[in-house]
Amino acid sequence: MTDNSELTDLTLAQARDGLRGKAFTARELTQSYLNAMNDADALNCFITKTPDKALAMADEADTRLMRGEGRPLDGLPLGIKDLFCTQDVLTTAGSHILDGFTPRYESTVTNNLWQDGAVMLGKLNMDEFAMGSSNENSYYGPVTNPWRRSGGETKLVPGGSSGGSAAAVAAGLVAAATGTDTGGSIRQPAAFTGIVGMKPTYGRCSRWGIVAFASSLDQAGPLARSVQDSALLLTSMVGHDPKDSTSINAPVPDFESAMTGEMKGLRVGIPKEYRVEGMPEEIDRYWRQGMDWCRAAGAEIVDISLPHTRYALPAYYIVAPAEASSNLARYDGVRYGLRCKSDDITDMYEQTRSQGFGDEVKRRVLMGTYVLSAGYYDAYYLKAQKVRTLISRDFSQAFNKVDLILTPTAPDAAFGIGEKANDPISMYLNDVFTVPVNLAGLPGLSLPVGLNAQGLPLGLQLIGKALDEETLFRAGGALEEAAGFNATPTRWWRDV
Questions:
Q1: Helices (H), 432-468
Q2: Is residue 360 part of a domain?
Q3: How far apart are CA 480 and CA 263, in angstroms?
Q4: Which of 7, 180, 229, 482 is exposed most, by the fewest CB atoms within 10 A?
């Protein structure tokens, strides 16, 4: 029997093996996470906790495991980003406008997880409607990064929008978590919190039942403590879904088995355009170190060019708000969520949306409505879509020469809560290395490789060909082994 205090230190794969080997039960594992959650309110990772549901699901998993009928994720406790609709469980997307919304249906991704035996611990905090890079835009308050600068007590952001998911994984409050990535919202918070974040190919995971931000960019993916855990979780998340017209009907590999520990024969591209002005020397140093690790694992390093990279951010911040303004038009106070009382229906619409949406959401809806308006559609939205095509073409041409691309994940480490609150442009620049991947619909993986001088995690990003997540996991596993990153945050929140 393993001591309960040690169970939350296990990786997802270790916990799976322990359950199958009957070293502990799913109920014991789940209870240890529930205890950890209750000691971590200072991090504000959860919007809704579901302890009774979790224990009931754990008991069902124990019954199956006892009968020898274990499923791939049986008894493994997960956190779910509050963008995924969960049947009869409050789903808010981090917004006031969805107050009291309890779906009568389950998102395809979470349904896949439950069918494979996973346990739901609760719904995780996030930037409102996934709009943000710091998790400061939630109606339920900001999430606090479990990491702190060496010798400091400044509260840091965990990145966004999947900040609650990333912080919960890094703090050991969940074994792993789901996230969504529209412009880097899995990979950037993974880098900020020292964990692994995986954005699969657009269409790999069904978007059905996920509250929409920008439909042509949104993609679900896992946040986990290791590359192996990420592969394990993604295998259960993906699959064709006839309810989602953008879902890809392609075979689902066993991603975990792709991790061979070497990169022999792989060509890894280094794009010159990712050497941005003002990037800290530490990040550039780890990038060069990553190239050396690739060579040592048997890969060849190839210089490449992605010439339209510099247009990715402006194109993204036209396309994404445009799609958001359309998607968010459905929130009007009539059918579900918040409704502000009024004698006049037009005033009810206006008051509900005014009070229900936060500042960042309003900013993006206004931007999106503007670029879609008569006289500006061709000048902005249509032009941004043409730039998007050029960015995709750059990647296609690069992948004629290389198998993977290696870049930094983010231009800096985690920053303090409130430090960039009044500078949205600076905030948007956090996504400079991740946005191009979403515009092209490609898979990307972020893994931690070291700490900066202030003791904060830094990450590197691997970008792969469409539907080639296996090569990403293969290379990611080799880089992870070479980096040997095993640092964890001090659990200061237990004393708060």
A1: 435-440
A2: no
A3: 12
A4: 482
Q: Which one, of 337, 346, 326, lies nearest residue 139 by Cα?
A: 337
Write the pLDDT tens digit of every residue in 97-108.
999 999 999 999
- pTM for the model: 0.96
Q: Which helix (H) or strand (E) holds 81?
A: strand 77-81
**Which tokens in the block code for residue 83?**
């963008």
Q: How is residue 173 written in tokens? A: 């409050």
Q: What is the CATH number of the domain that holds 140?
A: 3.90.1300.10
Q: Is 388 within a domain?
A: no
Residue 433 belongs to some domain of the structure: yes
Task: Supply the pLDDT for residue 4.
Answer: 55
Evaluate if residue 254 carries a pLDDT over 70: yes
Closest of 184, 182, 252, 197 to residue 229, by C-alpha: 197
Query: Parallel, antiparallel, or unpaired: how do β-strands 119-124 and 46-49 relate?
Result: antiparallel
- Count of structural domains within the chain: 1
**pLDDT class of 399 with cuts at 50, 70, 90:** very high
Q: What is the pLDDT of residue 100?
A: 95
- DSSP labels for 473-489? HHHHHHHHHHHT-----
3-state helix, strand, coil in the chain (%, to 5): 45, 15, 45
Q: Which of 210, 40, 50 is nearest to 120 (CA)?
A: 50
Its domain, for residue 104, covers 4-269+402-495
Q: Is 198 left (phi over 0), alpha (psi -120 to 50) or beta?
A: beta
CB 145 within 8 A of CB 176: no
Nearest to residue 137, comparing CAs of 80, 78, 96? 96
In a domain, 298, yes or no: no
Residues assigned a catalytic role: 81, 161, 185
